Amino acid sequence: MAAEIGQDECFVNEVEPSVDELVVNIGPSHPSTHGVCRVIVRLDGEVVTKAEPVIGYLHRGIEKMAENRTYLQVVPLTDRLDYVGSMYANWAYCRAVERLAGIRVPERAEYLRVIVCEMQRIASHMMSLGSAAADTGAFTMFIYAFDQRERIVEAFEELCGARLTYNYVRPGGVSFDIPEGWAESVLAFCRDHRTALDDIDALYFGNVIARDRMKGVGVLSAEDAVAWGASGPVARGSGVNWDLRKHDTYSVYPRFDFDVPTGTNGDCYDRARVRLFECYESCRIIEQALAQMEPGPINASGMPRLLAPRPGDAYDHIESARGSLGVYLVSDGSVRPYRMKVRSPAFCNLALLPMLAEGHMLSDLVVILGSLDPVFGEVDR
Amino acid sequence: MSGLAWGAFYGLAAGLVIAVAALIGVWGERKVSARIQMRIGPQELGPFGLLQTLADTVKLVLKEDITPRAADVRIFRIAPLIVFAPIAMSLAVIPYAAGFAPLDTSVGVLFFMAVPAISVIGVLLAGWASRNTYATIGGLRAAAQMISYELPRTLSVLPFVLLAGSMRPLDIMDEWRWWWIPLTLIAFVVYFISSVAEVNRGPFDLPEAESELVAGYFADYSGIRWAIFMMAEYGGLVAASLFGAAFFFGGYLGLPGALGVIVLIAKATLIATAMMWVKWTYPRMRPDQLMGTAWKVLTPMALVQLVIVGAVIPWL
Amino acid sequence: MAVNSHNNTDTRNHEIGAPAQAPHVVPVTVNVTDDFPGGVAGFFARWQSLLTGLGITGRKALGPATTLRYPHEKVALSPRWRGALRLRGILGLDDIPIIEDTPPEYNALIDGLYRADRLPPCVGNCPANVDARGQGYYLGEGKPAEAYELVRDRNILPGVLGRICHHPCETACRRNYYDEPIAIRPLHRHAYEEYVKVASERLEPLERTRNRRIAIIGSGPSGLAAAYDLMKLGYSVSVYEKEKKPGGALYSGVPSYRLPREVLHDEIDNLVTLGMEFKLGVEVGKDVPIDYLLGEYDAVLIAVGLQESRIIPVPGHTAEGVTGALPFLRDANWKGDPGVQGKRVLVIGGGNVAVDVARCALRTGATEVRLACLEGEEEMPCHPWEIEEALDEGVIAMCSLGPEEVLVDDEGKVRGMRMRECISVFDASGRFAPQFGDEYTEVAVDMVVFSVGQGPVLADVVAGSDLTLTERGLLPVDGTLFTTAQEGVFASGEVVTGPGSAIASIATGHEAATSIHRYLEGLDLAEGRVARPVPVYDKYQVAHIDGVEANRRRVTMPMAKPEERATDFRHIELGITHLEALNEAMRCLRCQSEVCVGCTFCARTCPDYAIEVERVDDPGERRVTHYELDLSKCCFCGLCAPQCPTNALTHTGQYELSFFHRDLTIFDRHEMLRDGAGTRATGRDGVHEAVREVPR
Predict the structure, then answer these.
(1) Cβ of C66 and B38 within 8 Å?
(2) pLDDT by residue (tens digit) across C639-651?
(3) Domain boundaries, chain B
(4) ipTM, interface predicted TM-score of the complex
(5) Of A364, B253, C47, C383, which residue is the least packed, with the fewest Cβ within 10 Å?
(6) How far is B137 from chain A (nearest CA, A)?
(7) B275 lies within 8 A of chain C by CB
(8) What is the pTM of this model?
(9) Is residue C409 a contact partner of residue C385, using CB atoms and an 8 Å limit?
(10) Domains and CATH numbers, chain C
């Protein structure tokens, strides 16, 4: 894609002037690209005739770097995949390692993982909803959402000392047990969070302007969602009832009672509102998990310092905030992975952008981009 | 000679008033937005952070004034003034106190509606001269938007002309009665919305839509020139608030001198606060929806209002 | 490179609570789609939505602000905010703590250390809590005599145990996690060998400060441990032994290829020098009744051990050529001839004693030695290295077979053994309940030695006292306080625990000594006593040691050649050299000492190469000369801290370091040691410190 466009078109002024079309570069440094994505947009007036995402600005070669690190040292790298949902990449990677090395994780660690990942889902969705709202100019809604996210980040900081790159889930367990009083503060948060979600729903999703901006924009049919490999809220917004927590269940998720919100129209509104409703469900899961959790060890016993799984491969995926996040690991029996491959939901979802944006206005483009919720650390890796 | 001197004096005074108003307006906006967003807002400099905007102004004045290499230099440099000057001029016809309007003219209402429209040209020039795609789009959007909203805005003020039988603001103020408020409620809604759109504030801030066009027509401006754009925006806000306070809420209530000015400003502050409240509550509209609102919602509403007032007048 | 793709789906079944079949049809219960109503209602609903928005923002505007005034309030909020990476201590500036024996309160000390997470796993896993870390420290510092004495405080015969102990310490050694465990047992032996050279200078009789006398029946490891503890407390102790030489099972049962008798006697001679009084050749119950002891002494400890071998009453068990393990070993050890010359021997049993019997039989001229046990190869109760050595020497192991009948020839002599296939040894709840199959095996042998357990012979000992035995001939003893039914009489060792290891017997001896001391002092016996704290240490998986430097590997104990050593009772472990011992001692990571020993595992784990560690390894001069953390590289992932074997390195948060004091990027070792409160890196630590002063 990028090679086709060519380096010369980076600067608009060097493009041969055309009376029909205006070429606008959205990004790589732009307020609404959620990172460093560049979208080359061709405009007919305000109408987008072609939008091409150019990725790779955040490429750090994480998959290749992983080949030169021990299994444990890869964990901090996975933090930097999806940096608004570090727990997911941690967990997906650790699950692959555990599957590869046949490690059994203690039950308490599984509960802790579920709790932090559901909190991370709320934090990530708040980030997504907030920035999508900011894309439409609703900056106050952005602040309200970030206020909620901030509380989770505070809780994470109290839990593991980090606010963004938690490095919390480790092969065989987690790095810290919950500090005193933490569970109570999380329960209190869940209670407050529902009220905050109600406010967000009424303020933004009930607002006529926001509805006009999002409804009927970027409609993705269920067939297309499946065909393009979309997952997570993007697919569920189109009515694809697919959630790995239910449909390929893992960890202790079968023990919880929760629903999978889905949309019907597949437009930006449904995609965004699925995220909102998932936050309610995450609150339910957190409350159940905290009630069910029992004291016990938080790390698998007797793991050697350097993991050297038997030669073979393993794939595991979890439902991240953006969709099904998979990690494929190949071991050649040494202490370092022979190959790591990340199946990034953000990458697959971003691929929908040209199809969804075509024929809409420039203002809709940022709304569509926001509703796909790409995180470029994960897209580019 | 005396006319020129008066004009120079007036220009200076208007610049000063707008500068002070912008300083307080920016501070107020920060405080209002902070409160709405559960924040504290400026707090470190001066009481309640009042001096924060002053410090920012000093910073802006001292900043380098950058002109892009590709820009059309002369137009680029003069565009902020073209935006600012009509806004400053529009302040002249506002009736501040009993018998006091700096420019007391019999076509005051028309003047107030027509002159600020000139700043559209400045915005267009700024967007064009920047030679920047974002700025160009922003400028074009601004032109379309401001011209469209001229219509409902002007229509919303016409009921007063009908009621008072004059276009001279002081005359209208003399004729003003309290029951005009319920009578012109629809007009006020139209005036309020179209004024917000006229000064490019949210939810109608498409020309400078940050998430789409970075900063729209003034994306390439910096330092004092950027500050002039901001002053123009707040000047427009102040002018619209003062004018709205005068016509829709009785202005100075017949009070003369400083007392009248204070009453007017107090009412205008409420309107300005409401405009900020609206800005920090709603998302931004899309250009086509914006046009649709102007033509399909506001204009018919203003016409309905006109019909109502027209129907009432024979009974007075 | 060949990569085999193997089926990993089975691992999913390991998961907690995962259903066998994932439900693929989940009903949609929540639909998010919503829209305004049509018509006029929609017009008003639209305007109402705008007013609702204004209402929400207006309400929030009148409410309190949730943001904080940085950094004051922020600091007060975050309890974990106490510094990113810090060393609690560093070798060269701080000393390794030595767990000094403080009888009779040693167990309380161990318990406290364990609860404070300051107990090294080797010490915790040892039944007698021998301070192996302190031994490593002293040996590394070039003080073998101190090391020996430290070990002797808890392990009465270090030279002996250094040869025969089953070393649970090495199983728990944290070095397993990194490469290979420290050779703690050979170091005991080495410490003894060094101590012998200076023994005459260091041995001084212990002072008797208390006017109380204690009799100990039995001079096995348990009795000696109790005697030594009580001597240290100032009591007079007499040890009664029915044999001519002291040592108990060490003397009669352990074959001399594992334990040269001169080592045992030398160590016991040292105890005599310290003031221990032995009454050899006096059998309590026959020569002196226990009544006499009770009258003569203030307290009596029964530590007679197990005297009798069990023989399974299968048909033919009375035939000539059937014997028990203990008589067999006694004959082998004392006479050098258990009567197996030229015979084929079958040993029944899979324990360590059975292996000892088998290896003794080889050494005394048996032509063929077989070992038959119920358990499968993997689950044999003996230590794996024992059976491995025995197999090297030529013992034939026959696993999963249960004795059915001893085949007897016409003269009443053993001619063979019929055995039945054993399917499983334990039932679901882990109890001994062997299940047999239908296959039978017969072996032609001339001698059958049953080594399936031992029992005490106490009837004579307790005759005349108030003590009574159970139906099975056992003495009822409190398992924690080691008291018996009669006041003033205590019991320890295998009498109490049943067949076990020497070090476990020693542990009971220490406990019994504590009880005796408290009894004599009139203190509450039970106060603060729990069943000895038994920390549970994980069993380590075998570490990946490819590429581990040679000097980091465990020393290998040179062994005599199997084909040669199997012919006589020569010692099979040849010992390690002084230099090897020094190197081994310095491999010790000084776990849980909270002092950085420069092991470099943090630096090796750091993905960003932010840590530099240098140390000097000279004997007696071991210290960390350089510890540097480069914060400009550090990503605060915290992988390093869990690697620290000593808990010296701690990691908590990253926030403040990314926020304040960017100028300070290199932490040298002194900076790493900075006090937790009010550090330079954070300027604050903990809530109260933080509120006091906040740098901008």
Answers:
(1) yes
(2) 888 888 888 887 7
(3) 65-315
(4) 0.82
(5) C47
(6) 8
(7) no
(8) 0.79
(9) no
(10) 85-93+589-686 (3.30.70.3270), 103-307+456-520 (3.50.50.60), 311-455 (3.50.50.60)
